[in-house]
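Hi L., both proteins are below.
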Amino acid sequence: MDATASGTPTIQYHNIPDQPITTIVVATPVPTFERRQRHCFGTSIPGEFPLAANPSIVLHVLTACNLDPQDLAKLEATCSFFRQPANFAPDFELSISELAALDMCQKRGIFKPMTAEQRQELKQRCGGSWKLVLKFLLAGEACFRREKSQAIAGPGHSIAVTSKGTVYSFGSNSSGQLGHGTTEEEWRPRQIRSLQGIRIVQAAAGAGRTMLISDAGKVYAFGKDSFGETEYGVQGSKLVTTPQLVESLKDIFVVQAAIGNFFTAVLSREGRIYTFSWGNDSKLGHQTEPNDVEPHPLLGALENVPVVQIAAGYCYLLALACQPNGMSVYSVGCGLGGKLGHGSRTDEKQPRLIEQFQLLNLQPMVVAAGAWHAAVVGQDGRVCTWGWGRYGCLGHGNEECESVPKVVEALSNVKAVHVATGDYTTFVVSDDGDVYSFGCGESASLGHSTATDGQGNRHANVLAPELVTSLKQVNERVVQISLTNSIYWNAHTFALTESGKLYAFGAGDKGQLGIELVANQTERGNPEQVDIDLR
């Protein structure tokens, strides 16, 4: 419609003549602003907030933000305020950043019950700084799920621990390794009632044997009454069918246990390793009998080095150490297949540093010891494997052995956060919860079952990492994988999700999946949820 015809007044436009920029005159000068340098110690200028005037606020902010030790060190390097004594209790000589590190240490369950003397001893062992103690504690928390829900796929039997410390067990029970006071199999998760009132924070399972660790650092063991050879040979004088306190460890605050085929190892709160049995020929740095029940410290190169995680293979032990200059891995035991990572196949009777990680410029964060091969996840998310390569368990696309750690190139686009190893089998969990597996496909424990009838070629060996699509379909973020680490038992696998749901697949002939199988069925190819809430 025409605007004039409608009676609406027309808009009048006026031409504004162009004016050269040079003719525009600014009447008043634009004020310039002086750039002021703020100092941590303040000035006499009103409104200036000197950090030194109220350091308690700064300390609160540093602690509340949960800064990591590297960030605290950078603050010290960039500003003298964070380096000088803060005049605060409990140590008036400590700097603000050191106090913040100490405060964050005191939030950790391992650190809280320590006496002042024990804390100072740990501080000196870690390098003389509370920031280094914090680094040690955080590294340990990242390695294994202490005080969090966890599931252990042992040889023929399984252990599940809730976030509140309640323990369930199921599967084979010929040696009383389920802890229920009997030797009868359990096909469904059953709570270990005798542990009521005791909070369990970590578990380990070997053939016919189980070890549990409480939040007070006490160790309970049941099953075969021996710390030595698990499959054959010495089995102890009796079977223990309910959890019993390990008296020889009562004076050691234990945070982790690892069970190999010929030996058992525990890790103390201070980062010291103690081993039982398999001392003949000084295989673990000491001379003992196979049925020895006394713990012996693993010394040598680790005598003054704090360890944050241990992992036991069939006949060797790995130790992840935390030192001021970074993380490192040591190995000891049988070197067949190159699984000790030193470029040879010779045995090591004392712990020896694996030097290859320095050449790869990789900071190890998690270690895993399979029966015959090993794996590490680096801080940057790279995965390294080495040892026997049978069935493709190293993930390098072949079955060759590797005597030094080698990066799994097929995972170059994946940032890994967790790795688990078994008998020629490897699983990797990425930062987004995806799961990859490779190696021996026996017992359908790799999770690669794609046929509509659930059968398919799920027993095929996998030479390079493949996404476990069956776990992708559960629409849950996977945070932990556990798989059987024994050469004598058919393997099964657990996948634990962020919400506390547990999925199982693989061999289930003894009830170790926690799932009832139909007639003539001995395994499950696809993950199935176990009827248990681990939150």
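That was the first. Here is the second:
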Amino acid sequence: MVCWVRTLLFISVLVPAFVECRIRHYHFNVVVKNATKLCSTKPIVTVNGTFPGPRLYAREGDNVLVRLTNHVQYNVTIHWHGVRQLRTGWSDGPAYITQCPIQPGQNFLYNFTLTGQRGTLLWHAHISWLRTTVHGAIVILPKKGVPYPFPKPYKEKVIVLGEWWKADTEAVVKQATQTGLPPNISDAHTINGHPGPVPNCSSDDAYTLHVETGKTYLLRVINAAVNDELFFKIANHNLTVVEVDACYTKPFETDTLFLGPGQTTTALLKADQGIGKSLIAISPFMDTTVAVNNLTGIGYLRYNHTLAFTPTTFVAIPAVNATPVTSVFSDSLRSLNSKQYPANVPLTIDHSLFFTIGVGINPCATCFNGSRAVAAINNVSFVMPTTAILQAHYYGINGVFTDDFPAKPAIPFNYTGTPPSGVQTMNGTKVYRLAYNSTVQLVIQGNTIIAPESHPTHLHGSNFFVVGRGVGNFDPEKDPLKFNLVDPVERNTVSVPTAGWTAIRFRADNPGVWFFHCHLEVHTTWGLKMAFLVENGRGPNESIEPPPSDLPKC
């Protein structure tokens, strides 16, 4: 079969060539580059010198090869967020979960196939806080000749949302770890790397989306922010959502998108306003008493032939605590559930799990107040090992992890009521073991210990169906009666509402070790993470592939 081979060079030039294959080659060189934003310059870690990093384009079914070479002082890994990695967990990327990190001066070939997936995803560093600037888009086009299940757009545009710190974020997280205090919040939000106009800086470094009157555009919107859930709006324009997390949805129209870190939303934009310039705004969501960067990131939608000094049409952004806006958006998402793209929701369940998630306080003799902020699932703060768990599992190395992660809290309590007197967590490197092809129902319950908060949670290695959500404590008798088991949205990252719960279902048909964690980097750092260990099935087609010969060593 004839296909494109795309080779991404060090200078970020994409060189295409026709060859007889379905392999896409990329070269990712991790390098430091000076960047100027908010009227100040600092060195940042990048891939191929760009922020955001290079876009990875492929088609469903393609084999993707990414040679990553580390030219910086930090250890590095890359996670292909949302790529299922069927039997190729060695290429999933989370440091010390599926691989040891790529050390300075070393390289590694990520090798995976895009099986049964099409749409918008992202890649990002998965060690420390390097993903602040080490991230980019993944665009998976349908197979050749397969149309979109929605009207074909005139053009497609990738829009990556992010956060920017004036300080070095590695220094920010190091200071927070030493003091035990929460890390400093970011200084700006960015649209394709541009913060737009901000206070105390005269530079209007803003992204502009150029459109032609009467045309329809497909916007691939990605939240690559580190700690902020974000609203996305364009003045005087509605958007029709057609896909989230590389899963098609029933189309619905909205004027506001809501994305947690790690989530993607693909939407159709009709350029139906004639000439003019409209504001694009991204703003944070936080409906609790947690500090957040409340600056709005600004960009512009500009119609062709608009005069230079045409006034901008402004947009009303949602309030920072606009919980109803997030609920309406989340409740509007439904799987397409067509004959070609069915919603295969597990109807019988082998493992019924109940995870409480939240933050706590542990003693710390060397910390600022004699205590340290931590986070936990079922009161277990995850401790990162020094050997990758997948390697320990594959080679039978003892002492790296235990498989006794609790299926439910050891001591039930009123999760969204008055917190218990003890706020200390236990530490451990624990996984939950699943037989191949078993089905899982997981209720993720937010708690109010220290402070309730919305938690965007991400599962590696599988998509899941969001069958229910609500506020308050999950009722195991009444709430399952309201589950949507017909066309629930399918995705890889979902927000658990503040002092509320979300129920998901998935099938464990991908052997390996799969990280499950809050995608707010602050909470991941504090320990709000665990892993599922999915055992091999029968025969090689139901077993993880052998590790590659160049797998990094710890």
